[in-house]
Structure formats: C-alpha cells, structure tokens
C-alpha cells in the first residue's frame, strides 16, 4: 500500500496578522469600516508607508474615501490630486482604457519618461512617494474603487512578488467588496454627492481643447503625450511618425506657447483648468491669458 504524504501550506502563507485581517474583513461587510478593513488585508500582504482608497469615475472627478499617510515628506496636499492632476495619472488612464480588477504596479504601466516627466517632478514626487501599487476593483465600465499602496524614497521598492501576492488574495477581497456594494450602494451614493461639481468637466475640456487656438491637431497630440510622460521616441511610435518629426513638433509647441520647459507646460496646463468652459468647448488658454493680462 502506498502511503500518502500531505503538506499543508496555510502556515506558510498566512501569519496571525493576515488571519486577523481576514476575520475583520468578514465582520465589516456592510459596515462603514469595510474600506479600512480591505486596506488592513492588503497591507498585511504587502506592507506600505502610506495608503488609501478613492472612487474613480469616467465622468466625474475622483472621490477620496480614506487616507493613511505615515510620516513622510509631503510638499503638496493630497486633495490637490482631485483638482486636475488625476487626468495625467498613468493609473487613471489605465482605468479609462477598461482594465479589469487587479493589482497594477506603477513601474510596469507608466510611460517610458514618466519619472522625468513634469507630472512626476512637479506633482507626484512632491507627495513623497517613490513607488506605488494600485489595487483596482472595477464596479462597472464607468466606476472603480482604487486602493493605493505607496512606499516613499526611504523604503525599498515594490517587487513583482508583491504584485503576485496581492493578486493571490484578490478573490477574497473581491467577494467582500461585491457583497458590501450590494448592501450599501456606496459608489452610487458618493457619485450623487459630487454630481454638481464641475471639476471633471473642466479637466476634460482642458484636455480636449488646451492650446487648440495656437497649435495644429498633430502638435496637440504631441503635447498630450508630453504631459503624460512619453518620450519623443515612444510618442513617435504611438503617432506612427518619426522621432525627428516629434522633436520638431515639440520645438514648435514651446515657441507657440512661449515657454521654455516641460515644467512651464505642466504649470500652464494646470493653471488653465479653472478657466475651461465645457459648454463652449473653447480653448481655456485664451481665457487664462486674458485674465493674466488683466491683472498684470
């Protein structure tokens, strides 16, 4: 008779911290602390320096649910993200592209020049974050809850193993969130609460019309890739043209907008958002310049 040999893995995969986090997750379904309980599970699997959760929408600005900021050098307020910079976030662009529920590591989805882009230098790096993983739970085509997990410049980066571990426990998190959503309808209620806010409409209008009165359509294409952190080479690949042609477009953009760097371009884009007029689909840069001239 052949003897059977069994080897259990639960003791290897689960420590007391994770077991307790799973227990709390089960208890909090349908209650206000569920979002915090999800973060506890994620952080038990993959420790972070800071974390949080927000609801993202296709037609509205993000809505913050929870922030956990541990001691870290932050030079910008977290709420600034929802005033416009989110539109250039690689993770948000991934959501708009229809990505499924999953764990997404910034280093594997960001454009090639992201870490030298002005979005990163002027905004992202000032949050004190050096690396991040977003656990995105998609509700429908237009809505998702994002649990962001971050490490700062004084900690080691995330690894592929961290992403794999998060993916492994996602079915448990998914089941809890699905039941919680059925009981609370949380994202829909939050969407109703911010329905009157016009920020997202202004952000979309700025993306669609920024500098349209001065630039050609192809120059506008190049400009948007610049803002999102794409190199000339990758922009050329996306637009099916040559690297040299893209560089010429970049020079023309600087000349026509009377700027000398990507930092000025990013600043100009952000400053134009409050001047966008979604009902008119006009260039917000014109109104920003008129206001600037009137006060100078």
| Strand percentage | 5-15%
* The named CATH superfamily of the largest domain: Transcription factor LuxR-like, autoinducer-binding domain
What is the overall number of helices? 14
> Given the helix and strand composition, which structural class is it?
alpha+beta
SSE sequence, one letter per element: HHHEEHEHHEEHHHHHHHH
Record keyword descriptors for this entry.
Arc Repressor Mutant, subunit A, Beta-Lactamase, elongated, 296 residues, alpha+beta, five-stranded antiparallel β-sheet
Protein architecture, described:
With 296 residues, this protein is of the alpha+beta class. The protein has two domains: 49-172 and 187-193, 2-Layer Sandwich (Beta-Lactamase); 199-295, Arc Repressor Mutant, subunit A (Orthogonal Bundle), CATH 1.10.10. It is 50% helix and 14% strand. It has 14 helices and five strands. A five-stranded antiparallel sheet has the order 2-1-5-4-3. α2 (16-28) runs antiparallel to α3 (34-45), α3 (34-45) packs antiparallel against α7 (160-184) and α11 (232-239) crosses α12 (243-257). Mean pLDDT is 85; it is low at 8-12.
